[in-house]
Amino acid sequence: MPSPITQLELARAGETTPEMKFVAEREKISAEVVRDELAKGTMVIPANRVHLAGRLEPMAIGIESTCKVNANIGNSAVTSDIDAELEKLHTAVHFGADTVMDLSTGKDIDRIREAIIAASPVPIGTVPIYQMLEELGGEIEDMRAQHFLDMVEHQAKQGVDYMTVHCGVLLEHLHLSMNRVTGIVSRGGSLIAKWMMSHRKQNPLYEAFDDLCDIMRQYDVTWSLGDGMRPGSVADASDAAQFAELDVLGELTKRGRERGTQVMVEGPGHVPMDQIQMNMERQAEVCDGAPFYVLGPLVTDIAPGYDHITSGIGAALAGWHGAAMLCYVTPKEHLGLPEKEDVKQGMMAYKIAAHAADVARHRPGARDRDDALSKARFEFDWNEQFRLSLDPETAREYHDQTLPQDTFKSAHFCSMCGPKYCSMKITQDIRKMAEDGDLVQLGTTAE
Amino acid sequence: MPSPITQLELARAGETTPEMKFVAEREKISAEVVRDELAKGTMVIPANRVHLAGRLEPMAIGIESTCKVNANIGNSAVTSDIDAELEKLHTAVHFGADTVMDLSTGKDIDRIREAIIAASPVPIGTVPIYQMLEELGGEIEDMRAQHFLDMVEHQAKQGVDYMTVHCGVLLEHLHLSMNRVTGIVSRGGSLIAKWMMSHRKQNPLYEAFDDLCDIMRQYDVTWSLGDGMRPGSVADASDAAQFAELDVLGELTKRGRERGTQVMVEGPGHVPMDQIQMNMERQAEVCDGAPFYVLGPLVTDIAPGYDHITSGIGAALAGWHGAAMLCYVTPKEHLGLPEKEDVKQGMMAYKIAAHAADVARHRPGARDRDDALSKARFEFDWNEQFRLSLDPETAREYHDQTLPQDTFKSAHFCSMCGPKYCSMKITQDIRKMAEDGDLVQLGTTAE
Lengths: 447, 447
What we know:
2 copies of one chain form a homodimer. The first copy, chain A, is an alpha/beta fold.
């Protein structure tokens, strides 16, 4: 038995690391619960030892901790540069991103990633196949397993905390995607599929899985087992291709844990509301409770431009039914690369979804902020109401737009109803009119 | 037995009216189903005979028809005028509002309502207590039942198709609201409660219920039985006050139907996700399947400025579990009177919610538009994709923002991934590489 390196191995060895203590305090659960969950593999703390030596504040992802939100940033060949990406990072973290993925596929990938890791207090994830493809000059057919292993090691050295790798897309399952409405919609999954078609050989990342584990273990990089076959339309949801890959991910979860690496599993995609609970439960069963990290899912395909909402609905349901982390979707999804304002809108929709999920799961304390805000609302304590809001600036701006005069800002009403129709003001009048016990008596004596 | 007037009475008499035929065609169900549902009271067609003589296109609301969306417009004492309200009506209908409520409480109420009814192809709802209060000079204590009866008749004559009346708030239930975090948050409900507290008498609208039925029947105004005790915070959801009133609404549903009037029932409000299904099922049982018309519900209180999203999540769940109509909530909720852009944002969130509900309920044909849009997406038919979008202008604008050159507009990628990483393009390459049967063979022979 080698000496423990990863949080998983340390937990199994009965050690309570500073990282476990940090997340326990943040989550208001005991460090023992954190350690036990880590040891079982039902919680991960994606914390690359390099990033941990820098600015990283450890983050727990798992069903026993609050529902997390990831924000995707990164440039594409078509648009964006390093300053724009750092601004997106800042915006995402400001609005509460629990992790950030750098999905850059354009120029200056290394400089952008290094700058992001150096600046980020939250775990950073990547999809290493993108940069590998850049270095191959864009021809996926040229890939050999060693190219990929080298890239994973390169990024691990930079301090990447978790990596999406599409090990679960197998040659024998490709035919299951051929009649789909939207085919393969995972970028990494489609690249691997193309490689397999060209070479008529098995997925080299699947075959190199154990070697990948060994590299990732050295830095404690957490797996995010990619779902190359995730549905890209509600028509393709919960199909044979998706679930064939899920079974492979279940097998890899087990193998990854055995080799000491922490494992998350990625999930759909586009799923009608009535299939979401089933999807969450099936993943938990097949992958032995590994933290499920879902992209939405979008509950309808008909609203490009508003997919932060179509997917926010699905994400809230997914979180309620057990997803540990929600990957945000921005209004630009399916249309273009998100910019700063899109990052903000995506974050807001997903902070709402994650919090609504925590409330629906009855997490201890989850509703405290709701109750405090509602109390402030009832008491016309506008400043406190704004302070407790997910986005105080926007709430204040909307309120002040139609009540611009300073004298109105502490008013016992807003412009929605005006003073005469404010139900909360009227309720307070009623309460003043009711003496102690008075109303209870009315309740029993009324005709 | 008087001769039948309302759609309910006509359906019971076995008549298939032009209105029934119209909505049957629109809903792609048979006119017999419409008639049967109307006769049972599980569907309503809010169609005031006055408005029907004007521009009204009848609309079905009920569990056997698609999920509907209502948009609230109307001025307040603080802001807005007739032109602004007509612009909001136009915006709401343009983005798919199935009904519109005029909640004006400011100046020129009659002129605004008449203009709205004259211009509107969709059913118009009101809350008559607002205008009545204006005419009383703002003192609810001065109300007598006759004031209210007169106002209902006045608005019925104008052509209002459905009216929210808070008959279900009873004196003996007031004490149940006293310890709530946010008290009574229905404007009409709080006004009635204040009246009852002042006079220590039963709700006069409850006592005048049969007389109100008689007026409404003459014009075929549909009841929207107001939920004065709806929860205004997640803390107050599903409490004794809410359900005590629901039982009263169940009784009034029965009485309203007996007197020949069509009846809808209003519902919450603020409800955590895990209580929504229960709320929908309880209403259906208590109110014998009367169409349920819900306001959201918001699934968390912490996001003022984004309550179209917090409530869109709840609305989608409500629609899935049986709500017949969703009353939109705009980003301005709790902060100010919605303006035109807020109307648009509220409509978009709710069209998404209603459609996602129809998809989750497996309504025949509900998914056709999703499938067609996804097919266009896969084929890079951008124009068709935009055409099928809920908001084509916004989708096109977002797409073009980062791919401004004309040459790119028909490109087989967008700026999100760029040409090298477009999974749909790669999938098409893969499909070209696969000959007939080729992949199935791979599927069976791969190691």
